């Protein structure tokens, strides 16, 4: 498992507030992406639903057509914006997520796009686990009323650094995704996500640190900024956690870019001190990464 991260990497988590105006959102996001690039970030991550408000009532009106790829600019202005930003900054960009529609099936997805420094689409991740919860007296939310789930684990090679995994928000509550990604050689698990004021207070930091602790890799969560005038109030607190489950950096509630310097020796040092990777008992329980894992839709 040596050398998962091949060289030091500066990570930027761009915590944004989205308005009802998609064009304004894209323009504002571009300014923040350029700011992160000027600060030296080689991997820039945006939040869940960075181009639109978050909510089941918004997904259909903001959804963009991504297939067949590449879409036209009128079909997906967000796709072309992300591609151009990546090319301009010469950075890897994880485009948080956007609402996607497949016109032939009339299905909607919550979809993340990853672009190379050349502006090439490297990967697409559709949210696998839909956010359907009901906490009495607190919050009820059912993404499945509008969205359909994705059907794969998403791993992305980002030379010369190594391999990362992309998942979205509620996906973090399912440790199998993280375990599979880590055992397939990822140095970083990335989760654009919009936890709310109830689940954020309970589990946001806990989930990030738990996924890092269990797998001894870097974990980063990128949230929208909190807007108490919006219909959905995001938790904020975008954060990066090291392989020893220590919080490297954490944003507050408002718009902010936070940075983390990922060291190429941290994973191996952590695993040497607490050698979970040589102590697992696959003669007692199964290795989930060796099962019927889907890496393609």
Measured between the Cα atoms of the first and last residue, the distance is: 28 Å
Q: Give a quick account of the main beta sheet: strands, pairing sense, barrel closure.
A: 7 strands, mixed
Q: In angstroms, what is the radius of gyration?
A: 18 Å
Please bin the fraction of helical residues. Answer: 10-25%
Number of helices: 7
Average pLDDT taken over every residue: 96
Q: Element order, helices and strands?
A: EHEHHEEEEEEEEHEHEEEEHH
Total strands: the figure is: 15
Low-confidence segments: none
Oligomer: single chain
Shape: globular
Structural class: alpha/beta
Percentage of β-strand residues: 25-35%
Indicate the topology.
Blueprint: E1 9-15, H1 22-38, E2 43-45, H2 59-62, H3 77-89, E3 92-94, E4 98-102, E5 107-115, E6 121-126, E7 132-135, E8 139-142, E9 154-158, E10 162-166, H4 175-183, E11 186-192, H5 197-215, E12 218-222, E13 239-241, E14 247-250, E15 256-262, H6 266-273, H7 276-279
Helix pairs in contact: 1-3
Concise account of the structure shown:
With 297 residues, the protein is α/β, with parallel strands linked by helices.
What does this protein look like?
The protein has 297 residues and is α/β, with parallel strands linked by helices. Helices cover 25% and strands 26% of the residues. It contains seven helices and 15 strands. It has helices at residues 22-38, 59-62, 77-89, 175-183, 197-215, 266-273, 276-279; strands at residues 9-15, 43-45, 92-94, 98-102, 107-115, 121-126, 132-135, 139-142, 154-158, 162-166, 186-192, 218-222, 239-241, 247-250, 256-262. The strands form three sheets. Strands 1, 2, 3, 4, 5, 6 and 15 form a seven-stranded mixed β-sheet that branches. A six-stranded mixed β-sheet has the order 9-10-11-12-13-14, with helices on one face. Helix 1 links the parallel strand 1 (9-15) and strand 2. Helix 1 packs parallel to helix 3.
């Amino acid at each position: 498992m040596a050398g998962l991260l091949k060289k030091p990497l500066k990570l930027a988590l761009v915590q944004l507030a989205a308005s009802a105006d998609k064009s304004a959102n894209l323009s504002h996001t571009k300014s923040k992406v350029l700011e992160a690039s000027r600060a030296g970030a080689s991997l820039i991550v945006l939040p869940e639903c960075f181009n639109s408000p978050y909510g089941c009532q918004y997904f259909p009106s903001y959804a963009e057509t991504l297939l067949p790829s590449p879409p036209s600019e009128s079909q997906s202005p967000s796709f072309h914006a992300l591609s151009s930003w990546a090319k301009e900054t010469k950075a890897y960009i994880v485009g948080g997520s956007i609402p996607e529609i497949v016109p032939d099936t009339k299905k909607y997805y919550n979809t993340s796009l990853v672009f190379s420094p050349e502006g090439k689409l490297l990967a697409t991740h559709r949210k696998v686990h839909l956010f359907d919860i009901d906490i009495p007296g607190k919050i009820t939310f059912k993404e499945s009323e509008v969205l359909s789930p994705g059907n794969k684990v998403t791993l992305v090679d980002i030379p010369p650094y190594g391999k990362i995994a992309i998942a979205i928000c509620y996906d973090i509550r399912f440790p199998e995704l993280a375990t599979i990604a880590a055992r397939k050689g990822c140095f970083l698990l990335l989760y654009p996500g919009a936890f709310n004021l109830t689940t954020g207070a309970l589990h946001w930091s806990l989930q990030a640190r738990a996924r890092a602790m269990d797998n001894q890799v870097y974990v980063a969560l990128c949230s929208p900024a909190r807007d108490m005038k919006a219909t959905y109030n995001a938790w904020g607190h975008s954060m990066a956690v090291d392989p020893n489950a220590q919080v490297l950096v954490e944003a507050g509630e408002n718009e902010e870019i936070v940075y983390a310097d990922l060291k190429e020796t941290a994973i191996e040092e952590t695993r040497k001190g607490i050698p979970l990777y040589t102590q697992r008992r696959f003669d007692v329980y199964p290795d989930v990464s060796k099962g019927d894992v889907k890496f393609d839709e």
